[in-house]
Design brief:
Blueprint: E1 15-20, H1 26-35, E2 40-43, E3 72-74, H2 111-115, H3 125-139, H4 164-175, E4 181-182, E5 192-194, E6 198-200, H5 225-231, E7 235-237, E8 241-247, E9 253-260, E10 263-274, H6 277-288, E11 302-305, E12 308-312, E13 327-329, E14 344-348, H7 353-362, H8 368-376, E15 381-388, E16 398-404, E17 410-415, H9 420-439, E18 443-448, E19 451-455, E20 481-483, H10 498-528
Parallel strand pairs: 1-2, 1-10, 2-7, 3-17, 10-20
Antiparallel strand pairs: 4-13, 5-6, 8-9, 9-10, 11-19, 12-15, 12-18, 13-14, 14-15, 16-17
Helix pairs in contact: 1-5, 1-10, 3-10, 4-9
Bound molecules: flavin-adenine dinucleotide and iron/sulfur cluster.
């Protein structure tokens, strides 16, 4: 995005707010604060990319939108990092996300109340939905005219065209009595003028969302909230890796230290917001040793169950064509025959060949000739996948490794093992998905085990003893430190996370501003007295 005309702040200036990270967590807040006239600086570790560099070719696609620094992964289901799980750059993971945007279900945020397991969210569902609607309005979300599981819901744009996998899922679901419809998706199906950015062309169904969207159709922070932030005076510093947080004698943040162009810089600030994602936010907190009196930083790492079921069909499917995930069913958010807490949603799939090959190796255990044979079926393969609840467990956690990165910061070591609840959900979902693809005419069914997303690790709550931030996103320990990204989720939710992260970001910005406003009011009252 264009940054050449942006406002510049000096490092000696005490800016109102520094935001670390410019993804779904950082960008909406940045735009909100800048619009209200605060002086804000965003520090982003990744580069500022140009959409014209994006290419659908998976091999040639620019690697610099994926966070490729090594992370150490363990447990019985080690999380696959790199392109599978986290982005970088001005726009964060929204540069390469799939833009599938279901809303969080009211049952999900009261999981503990309903099931006795997991955690409740300290947020009212109706309030969260208002912020979700605001985010959908701001960035442009398309969806069906009638949403079967929430008839009141309205989308301003119709859904994108279905691809062959979508038709397959609709056919198979209908045959076994499952309701399925066009999914809510974060893309424009009509040309849209995005304020402060310009034209975002309607989706052309090229199918390469994960390699970056060249024409701005897909919701990405660098074509929505970030241009607005810059227009209102925010400064975005790219390739600026934060590795230090300095506190004053009262225990409040007074500056952050970041490396850019091979040397350290120090930016003074009144408030710090961490939006570095579910891995880098806890890594930075553990490295700097702050905001962890609860001992909860890094704990409760959750990864959505994302198992896929693929089958081979008589006709050509060519699943690289079209928007990848255009069909959804929410029939299994709370299955009536469940022997587990929570549930899952199912989406249709569309993948490029290298992504499928990687999943066949990692999740299907295929190697050598068996892998080659499976890939020969690629043009006739189609599949469906889940996004499933994952309970937070104390020991699924991120700690600092002994090894350090190029900046001398200890690498993240993430341990993740699904519990019996996650295994029970996956068993149920594999039965359902197999029934769908077989009813649609698929044979040679393949189950590919996967997890997706990096959620939890600095959770919000109402008790300072077992959460890192309060319900507004403010650190219990450091009053001018806030967190707004994947890491604050107390439980994973069934819904894919990015839309909820944007909503939380708007909400935290509102809370931060209101807090400033009350401080201002106190000062004003004192001055008058
Ligand atoms: C391939 C893929 C497909 C996905 N598809 C979907 C989908 O369809 N729907 C959905 O809801 N979600 C999807 N997701 C997940 C979604 O994109 C993420 O959950 C969400 O975007 C995370 O937002 P965030 O702001 O928490 O973190 P990020 O987007 O990861 O942003 C963090 C930013 O902080 C920067 N940063 C980190 N550390 C530092 C530091 N020390 N100093 C400075 N900057 C730093 C990073 O470079 C990054 O830009 C997908 C993810 C992937 C990888
Ligand atoms: S399928 Fe649509 S949203 Fe995805 S990259 Fe292509 S044009 Fe963009």
């Amino acid at each position: 995005m264009r940054l050449d005309h942006q406002r510049h702040h000096s490092e000696d200036e005490v800016v109102d707010v520094v935001v670390v990270g410019t993804g779904a967590g950082g960008a909406p807040l940045l735009a909100t604060l800048a619009r209200r006239g605060l002086s804000v600086v965003a520090l982003e570790a990744g580069p500022n990319t140009d959409p014209e560099q994006y290419t659908p070719d998976e091999v040639e696609a620019p690697g610099d939108i994926n966070w490729m620094d090594e992370r150490i992964s363990g447990g019985s289901a080690p999380t696959a990092f790199g392109p599978n799980n986290s982005g970088t750059g001005v726009g964060g993971s929204t540069l390469h996300w799939g833009a599938f945007t279901p809303r969080p279900n009211q049952h999900d945020i009261r999981l503990r109340t309903d099931s006795g397991q997991g955690e409740d969210w300290p947020i009212d569902h109706a309030e969260l939905t208002r912020w979700i609607e605001q985010a959908e309005h701001d960035v442009g979300v398309a969806g069906p005219a009638h949403y079967p599981w929430d008839p009141e819901r309205r989308y301003r744009m119709g859904p994108p065209p279905r691809n062959a996998s979508s038709d397959m899922m609709i056919r198979g679901a209908a045959a076994v009595g499952i309701t399925a419809t066009d999914a809510p998706v974060g893309l424009t199906t009509e040309d849209r003028h995005q304020e402060h950015h310009g034209l975002r062309q309607a989706c052309v169904s090229c199918g390469s969302c994960h390699q970056g969207c060249r024409n701005g159709a897909k919701v990405s922070m660098d074509t929505t909230y970030l241009p607005a932030a810059v227009a209102f005076g925010a400064e975005i510093r790219a390739e600026a890796f934060v590795h230090g947080i300095e506190l004053d004698a009262r225990g409040r943040v007074e500056a952050v230290v970041y490396r850019q162009d091979g040397r350290d810089h120090r930016q003074r600030c009144r408030t710090l917001v961490l939006a570095a994602g579910g891995i880098e936010t806890p890594r930075l907190l553990l490295h700097t040793g702050i905001a962890n009196s609860s001992g909860q930083v890094g704990r409760n790492f959750t990864a959505h169950g994302a198992t896929q079921v693929w089958a081979t069909f008589d006709e050509s499917m060519r699943s690289y064509r079209g928007y990848p995930s255009s069909i959804i069913t929410e029939d299994f958010v709370r299955p009536t025959d469940a022997d587990f807490a929570g549930g899952y949603l199912i989406q249709s799939l569309g993948v490029q060949p290298l992504t499928l090959a990687t999943s066949l190796v990692r999740g299907g255990g295929l190697r050598g000739a068996a892998l080659v044979r499976a890939l020969q079926d690629y043009p006739r393969m189609a599949g469906v996948g889940i996004n499933a609840e994952c309970l937070p467990y104390d020991d699924n956690r991120l700690v600092l490794a002994d090894e350090v990165d190029a900046n001398g910061v200890p690498k993240a070591r993430v341990t993740f093992s699904p519990g019996s609840n996650e295994e029970a959900i996956t068993r149920h979902a594999v039965r359902t998905m197999t029934a769908i693809v077989e009813a649609a005419g698929g044979t040679d069914v393949r189950v590919l085990d996967r997890t997706a997303h990096t959620v939890g690790t600095a959770r919000m709550g109402t008790d300072a003893g077992n959460s890192v931030v309060d319900a507004a996103g403010r650190s219990w320990d450091v009053p001018n430190l806030w967190v707004v990204d994947n890491s604050v989720f107390p439980s994973s939710l069934i819904a894919n996370p990015a839309l909820t992260i944007m909503a939380l970001s708007l909400r935290t910005a509102d809370r931060l501003l209101r807090d400033d406003a009350s401080a201002d009011r106190e000062q004003a009252a004192t001055a008058v007295a």
